[in-house]
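Re: Re: token formats

Sure, here are both.
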Amino acid sequence: MSQNFNELITYSKAFPGLTPELEACLKDIAPSIMPHTKRVTDSFYEQSTT
């Protein structure tokens, strides 16, 4: 698993409701979602500025 994903998990723990079970789920799906995070992030910021 990439270091960036581990950093994302650490950052996400700052949000309420991230349980150990949800953290485990995120780690399980990381290989599927990580290739898309830049596109999703870019799209989010494009939408929020319009």
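Second one below.
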Amino acid sequence: MKKTIFEEMGGTYIRHGDYLIPCLTLPEKEQRFIGVWGQRHLRYLKEYRRGVYLNLLTSGKLNSYLADIEEQAQERFERIVEQMKQAQGITEQLKAENQMEWVGRMNNIQACAREIVDNEVIYQ
């Protein structure tokens, strides 16, 4: 029996019933860290941008793409929190004098920053 081009290039098949299925694997790549922001964006891609998700997955670029999104989102989040702290006058002195007020204001700032990052980076 004549070999297919796939077999000539070193490919193999697995028999499932009457069908021969090619054994396809993605090349091994360095796995980068994907945190909360990357996981949120992955969920968004799976639900609302299925074509983009499948394209990144089959090309082997999904992990690096999500890791880049993670870095961008985390940097943006930290920058927004710092800017809002300065704008609202939240200092270490406030933290030392009135911890409960400091915690409440910081929670508010972080919630606002999360929403901004979600809208600008994650759900775009």
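The CA atoms of residues 33 and 60 lie 15 Å apart. Residues 5-122 form one domain.
- S.
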